């Protein structure tokens, strides 16, 4: 039978919420252990909503356990870039990476733009990924163009649907008048 570890370290808000969900799912698991031949939530009087809730809690519990174990396994990563720990001066403003830089400098893979920085304490030159104003403008105008395209498409669709409904209504009125 599953048991809750009372010696677990104190968790923050998200961790506590996950452990509460684990406890709820452990109730479902305990039911399975008591009745190995039955499935959880198959008692008399339980409808599809309760079975779905039980399944959801079980999946949530498994996900929470996996997340908690991943957080425990995560180790402190040493800082390799000086600009993360020190003050720095930008020696070359944000620019687009060349093909060679994309292959050799890992910071280029994030956004395709980098800036060169000089750290104050270690006097080391390093690269930092950045977001370009040009790139942001392109992304914005692509979004605006997409929204406008969808607006035109749905406007045409609404107009077509309205005309179709108007023709059906006119045909219905014409048939009613003919039947008189």
TrEMBL record:
Keywords: Cell cycle, Cell division, Cytoplasm, Cytoskeleton, Membrane, Mitochondrion, Mitosis, Signal, Transmembrane, Transmembrane helix. The keyword Transmembrane helix applies. The chain crosses the membrane at residues 139-160. GO terms for cellular component: centrosome; cytoplasm; membrane; midbody; mitochondrion; spindle. It is a single-pass type I membrane protein. One of its GO terms (biological process) is mitotic cytokinesis. It comes from the Eukaryota. The keyword Transmembrane applies. Pfam families: JTB (PF05439). It is found in: Cytoplasm, Cytoskeleton, Microtubule organizing center, Centrosome; Cytoplasm, Cytoskeleton, Spindle; Membrane; Mitochondrion. InterPro entries: JTB. Belongs to the JTB family. Interacts with AURKA, AURKB, BIRC5 and INCENP. May be a component of the CPC at least composed of BIRC5/survivin, CDCA8/borealin, INCENP and AURKB/Aurora-B. Required for normal cytokinesis during mitosis. Plays a role in the regulation of cell proliferation. May be a component of the chromosomal passenger complex (CPC), a complex that acts as a key regulator of mitosis. The CPC complex has essential functions at the centromere in ensuring correct chromosome alignment and segregation and is required for chromatin-induced microtubule stabilization and spindle assembly. Increases AURKB activity. Inhibits apoptosis induced by TGFB1. Overexpression induces swelling of mitochondria and reduces mitochondrial membrane potential. This is Protein JTB. It comes from Xenopus tropicalis (Western clawed frog).
């Amino acid at each position: 039978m599953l048991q809750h570890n009372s010696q677990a370290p104190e968790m923050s808000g998200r961790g506590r919420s996950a452990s509460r969900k684990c406890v709820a799912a452990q109730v479902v698991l305990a039911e399975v252990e008591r009745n190995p031949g039955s499935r959880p939530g198959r008692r008399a009087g339980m409808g599809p909503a309760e079975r779905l809730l039980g399944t959801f809690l079980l999946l949530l519990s498994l996900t929470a356990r996996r997340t908690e174990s991943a957080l425990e396994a995560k180790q402190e990563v040493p800082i390799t870039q000086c600009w993360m720990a020190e003050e720095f001066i930008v020696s070359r403003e944000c620019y687009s990476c060349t093909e060679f830089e994309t292959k050799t400098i890992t910071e280029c893979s994030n956004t395709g733009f980098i800036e060169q920085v000089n750290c104050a304490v270690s006097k080391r030159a390093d690269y930092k990924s950045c977001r370009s104003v040009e790139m942001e403008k392109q992304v914005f105008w692509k979004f605006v163009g997409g929204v406008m395209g969808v607006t035109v498409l749905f406007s045409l669709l609404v107009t077509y649907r309205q005309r179709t409904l108007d023709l059906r209504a006119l045909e219905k009125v014409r048939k009613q008048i003919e039947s008189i």
